[in-house]
Amino acid sequence: MATSKAKKDLDWADLGFKYRQTDSRFSSTYRNGVWSQGELLDSPMISVHEGAPALHYAQQCFEGMKAQTAPDGRVLLFRPDLNSERMNQAAGRLMMPQVPYELFIRGVEEAVRANYAWIPPYGSGASLYIRPMLIGVGENLGLRTANEFEFRVFVSPVGPYYKSAGLAIISLAVSEYDRAAPAGTGAYKVGANYAGGLLATKTAHDLGANEALYLDSAKRTYIDEAGSANIIIAMKGGRFVTPKSNAILPSVTRRSIMTLAEQHLDRIIEDRPVDLRKEIGDFEEMAACGTAAVLSPVGKVWVDGQWHTFHDNGESVGPVMQKVYDLLVGIQRGELADDNGWTHEVRID
Ligand code: PLP
Ligand code: COI
Known about the structure:
By secondary structure, the protein is an alpha+beta fold. It is 22% helix and 29% strand.
């Protein structure tokens, strides 16, 4: 497909994180055990049967990725193999068919390429958010797996997830609701985990926080994760810790940050359960991380009726999180050497 090099006339620095309809989306259908070749569609609408298991029983999963423009104009994805792998783990958990990597990456690349005009330019601080999704469609009534599936990829140019630009300091409020049961679907990116989180997010907003912070639902003691991001902590005394749990999403961003911290920070790295109330006094810096959230330093957390503040009383970004952010974003934007081979170029011509 011929791709125009012209860009849309958007205020790239002020996009916010919201859906913007772009020109094309990729769609492939699974019927009788076979995926169709897939095609680019103009319409953002999906027409599905009223009995579709995606609608009634939440038989669906999704991914979140970003494409960024490098200083030399290349368009870069970040570790798309991990998103494909995670989508297939969710598909297996919800009894949906696997999406072969070849189909996944072709769908993502075609959707990005066809919407070249919508990819924010280098230096704007914005990126092209990519939303691959797998939904169970087709006629159904009883609780059983769908007989047809759609794999779709749409894109939308976005700015920062939390309101302010750049490295926004956010606040979290420990939720009274549980996100995921220990052997439930918490480790999978499935829509069912998120509908239940809407009220938790609203409750956090009512307390003046940006997001809910979930504790483990078995003991309500250990940190699980935030509503849309994993947690990382720089402890007083030098350790760099991420809470381990079977019920959290295995964040691509967090796994990458832990590797970068091991490679570039002079600190002991730990992936272990973190007892919030016992250990919060030892937190020097805390942050939430994810594709949408990137790395968002946490200035304060609401726990048992009071705020706990971290580095500089939550007034400024601490040096550890600033360094990790600079490394991560520098690699994602193609500004720093990609020694781990994480970026994946989408060829435009
Ligand atoms: N945790 C939850 C619940 C999420 O929705 C996300 C977003 O994808 C993350 C963590 C971060 O994961 P990733 O870094 O792969 O985007
Ligand atoms: C992402 O970070 O990609 C997500 O899917 C989080 C979502 C709640 C916007």
